[in-house]
């Protein structure tokens, strides 16, 4: 889900240092540019690990990958394999463009330890077309220094919505340019990533299990929107949040002037680099009265229909799933996707990564073949509902939900 946070541009072709041997089976592999911190290192390590196979990596700008892959599949020039934003797996599976990986997946001895959310969106009509590859998860982070100044326990993160609002109010009372809470109020992708877990953790969902029925019309959705609206109304949120399309999703908290914000596991590494002196805590996103959830983001590994390089592709994926591969991913920006070795993979790293990994492992990912139309579109029904209701009056919540419910259902009804 990081594609709406980091708008990278420019096509980069990865030219790997180690040439294949004469007997090696080359396979082509694409990845999106916001995986460039770990994918080249993983590919280099794989290529160096054995002589039988060799991966040829191409890095594609994040905002171009889906369209580029769609064009390539239609024209018969698709890569053998692809690290694909997991939310798009159902659409490509439904279009018949991916290899069925069911038998291979279930033959893996650690299959049951792989991220269930990734597999859920990688499954179409009871067949697995996408397997977990990289991961991030949504979490709640708080500024320990501001908590201490506000008389709060800096080591204790909020566990309910009431605790979030109470802490935000106390931090806000510090005055000046300090604010209690922040979210990007005009960013559909940001809010599917960080707002939806509040609904999940409270016992509701936004879709039926098969993705065919929209279920926005719930008490939990009304309560969650009212929760955010209340903080806006009490001026605990900066005014600029209303128009923020994601540019300040991470940057606002990094200034040290925000008490609490929902964010992602990527923030741990980013804060270490950009704001090394910022003291902060990480905790799962809570339900109204407790519990927790997370949006399981990242990539699924998919294989283009008709590839002749399946053995090489399988070898690469198995290397990625090894402890060596999981450690390499963890040290370069991805959460582990194998729960059975997550602690080992994260050993020696910031302990907050383990909190995020455990949250992600229990998280969910919305299942739909029309994710872009529903959630990522700048004028789509999801963000229109939230922006209207978050920054409106209590009376605006019900019509906003009903309009979004109807519009989203009509889009889903026309989907494959």
TrEMBL record:
Residues 1-24 form the signal peptide. CDD domains: PBP2_TMBP_like (cd13585). SUPFAM superfamilies: Periplasmic binding protein-like II. GO terms for molecular function: maltose binding. Keywords: Periplasm, Signal, Transport. GO terms for cellular component: ATP-binding cassette (ABC) transporter complex, substrate-binding subunit-containing. It comes from the Bacteria. The keyword Transport applies. InterPro entries: SBP (IPR006059). It holds the Pfam family SBP_bac_1. The keyword Transport applies. One of its GO terms (biological process) is maltose transport. Coiled coil: none annotated. Belongs to the bacterial solute-binding protein 1 family. This is ABC transporter substrate-binding protein.
